[in-house]
Amino acid sequence: MRKIQRNALALISGGVVAVLTLTACTAGGGSKDEAVGDTSTLRMAFYQDISTPDPDTAYNGSELNLVNSAYEGLVGYEPGNSNDKITGVLATSWTEKDNTVFTFKLRKGVTFHDGTSFTSAAIKASFDRRTAVGQGPAYMVAGVKDVATPDPNTAVITLKAPNTAFLPLLASPFGPKMVSPTAIKAHAANNGTSWFANHDAGTGPYTYGQFDKGTSYQLNRYANYWGPAPAYKTVNFSVVTSQSSLQLQLQGGQLDGLTTDLDKLTRAAYDKQPSLKVTTWASTLNPTLFVNPKSAFFTDAGTRRKFLSGIDLSTLVSDALGGIAKPSDGVFPAAVLPAALNKKDLTYSASAWREFASRLNNRTIKIGYATPDLVAKALSDNLVAELGKAGIKAQSIGFGTGTYYTAMSSADAPDLTIFNGFPDTVSPEAWARVFYTPTGGLDLFGASVPGMDTLLDEGLRTGNPDAYAQVVQQVNGSGLWFSLASLRGTAIFSTKVAGADKAFNPVITGLIDYAKLEPTR
After folding, report:
1. CA 16 to CA 514: how far, in whole Å?
2. Which interval of the chain is the signal sequence (predicted)?
């Protein structure tokens, strides 16, 4: 089975993006004298620098705000719809046969930013480039056997084998984007990765403007966009590496908004600000406890399950996250599998930890998390507190950016880790393969369950819900992974900015459709 590899920190909260309405722009699109009341420019802040916004390498989080503003796919998840509805973007309609042959009717009158007309010929060229670049997102088109183009407005995609996740993968924010064949040909050296690092050739509502790596990034409105023109002419992004600075500027009125995941106390502080509006929505974010099978404390499934049964999820999630999350009663994120098939089989036992504590001989359980993630930190810290009440010594350990993933696979990895992740798309395959199998890329402790790959292959091929129901049973029985909460996406905006409720992405909570934001009327 193909390997999926995604940067571990990329999944954590989908990144932090802050928004500030600014003023007039120069001829080049950058901000100039900041005249009060001018809302032609929207200024953003990335909490940390972003990965290269090449549509075929972007696989982290925050850089997708640039990619998905400049590029579009055939289909996508409807912004502002928590029901994960797939809607046409550059395709107006489609049919499928046996999860193998997909026929798309394409939108007419669309141009790429270099002036090239969008036709069916662009699909194969775009898929071929993604394959040639060969980075993480390449797996999404690896199963394509052929792209036929009966006419300029029709494409027939045939797969090598049935794949029930193919359409959701096309709709994914990470999914294949249409790239101008003219640009691909003109920048063929090294698959154009140098050129595409700071130029775009998409069809989206914005084009790439000036980039200053590590400092600032810019989007400019595309004058010939096929859809409604965005309200903001320019979107400027600056890199701000202090979480406290972002919060203070937002609360002080220097920033007009941010999209992020919050702990209970931070959310409460924002709720008290009359000049701000908090928007939340159901998401696929699913903070999960990973249990290290190499830990001396957790070598067998029975011990792991006993420990997990001692977690009072209602108390833990309420104390750590408050109203922005609810305790998870499933194994997969709620959106990706029907509730009837997606049930934990453990019942909370107040005595479970007392039995567990007697085996520890006063040793300390170490719980790891990535320091950029407020949600994981809050859950880890509160879990330590709850363990302490049961007489169990525990330590909450933060790992800095760039060290977390390596630390989880090292010989001295912590006994547990809490990871706030989301799937590539709304599909049980996209969650289970990545997190529950060593080939997936984010099975943090390298744990495995015999036979799981076979079940996942069956589910991918047939869509048989029984296959995924058996995976749920395997996860439950192993005690290796334990879903803690269903987290709501959160955006905090000044009351001067409207449209957040129509602009959020149901898969990645840090991703906003800026073409749907506008000044409050």
Report:
1. 15
2. 1-18
